[in-house]
Specification:
Elements (H helix, E strand, L loop, with lengths): L2 H13 L2 H8 L3 H15 L4 E4 L2 E4 L1 H28 L5 E6 L4 H15 L4 E6 L3 H10 L4 E5 L6 E15 L18 E4 L5 H13 L4 E5 L3 H9 L4 E5 L10 E3 L5 E10 L5 H18 L1
Parallel strand pairs: 3-4, 3-5, 7-8, 7-9
Antiparallel strand pairs: 1-2, 5-11, 6-9, 6-10, 6-11
Helix pairs in contact: 1-2, 1-3, 1-4, 2-3
């Protein structure tokens, strides 16, 4: 038995389905289901029974959840005491991220945080991809990480931002709005250069959609993308409001929407005061910016 299993059981009880519980915790649903089943096997009891499309607690499940809430509350109190004793202002904060998300930290969040917490020394731990980011927080090489959600179940996730992927096209291009993802098949696109992190990020989106566009131009000069679109070279697949000078171009959403979810994550262990302060700061920033 471990704390992760207890958190998953409590979340499932609160949300009524394992899918909703996984979404609330920003973890993959199969990982949550597997952890709950492992706990049931370990205890030798059935915690949930199916009810329609959801699940309900069995009588013994109700007892387990009641005790799990007590245990989790006690752990949170202990973590608070530990963090207050071990942390403190003036400490170092290490945040892991990927090259595509590093500008989000260094250009947007960290300057504001530095003004509020000038005594905290922040170091960015650069990682090649999501797996390395997860490894950095698991091994303690980083205190926090900014990465895409969901994350594996052994990590705690705090959602920070959602970004919508849109298609930016010249006005003469006749396409549906909103656009089905399969309309990208054979469509001429202005793409980031091969071998870079932006291209890898976009290729992952295309692979997930199962579509194959036609590369029209390949360049990492984002400032030039909309100019090429305006000249009719092709369309751009990127994030809404992340490109300048789109006046006169057509910005289309997809149906269903293509959403990239970003969050701050950490391992399930006591956090130092600097990390706790940064999580609180990021949450406040999200509320101020998005309401």
């Amino acid at each position: 038995m471990n704390l992760r299993q207890l958190r998953y059981v409590v979340a499932t009880a609160d949300h009524g389905t394992m899918t909703s519980a996984a979404q609330a915790l920003f973890v993959a649903q199969p990982a949550l289901s597997r952890a709950v089943r492992e706990l049931e096997r370990e205890l030798g009891v059935e915690l949930f029974a199916r009810s329609g499309r959801g699940v309900v607690l069995t009588p013994v499940g109700e007892q387990v959840v009641r005790q799990a809430r007590v245990a989790l509350k006690a752990v949170e109190a202990i973590e608070g005491l530990s963090a207050a004793h071990a942390g403190g202002r003036g400490s170092e904060l290490r945040i892991a991220t990927t090259p595509t998300l590093e500008p989000e930290l260094t250009g947007r969040l960290l300057p504001r945080f530095a003004r509020e917490q000038p005594a905290v020394r922040v170091r960015v731990v650069r990682c090649a991809g999501r797996e390395e980011v997860a490894g950095a927080v698991r091994t303690g090489r980083a205190d926090l990480a900014m990465t895409d959600l969901p994350v594996p179940g052994d990590l705690a996730a705090h959602p920070f931002e959602q970004r919508e992927v849109v298609l930016i096209s010249p006005p003469h291009l006749k396409l549906r709005d909103p656009l089905p993802p399969d309309a990208l098949n054979g469509l001429r696109l202005v793409l980031p250069a091969r071998g870079g992190s932006r291209r890898a990020e976009l290729d992952a989106v295309l692979a997930r959609l199962g579509v194959t566009p036609v590369p029209a131009l390949e360049s990492d000069d984002r400032a030039a993308w909309t100019g090429w679109v305006r000249a009719g070279a092709g369309s751009v697949l990127w994030y809404r409001n992340q490109l300048d000078d789109v006046d006169g171009l057509v910005v289309r959403s997809f149906m269903p929407p293509i959403i990239r979810r970003l969050g701050l994550v950490h391992a399930h262990r006591p956090l130092g005061q600097a990390a706790r302060d940064f999580l609180a700061f990021a949450k406040e920033t999200r509320v101020r910016e998005h309401g």
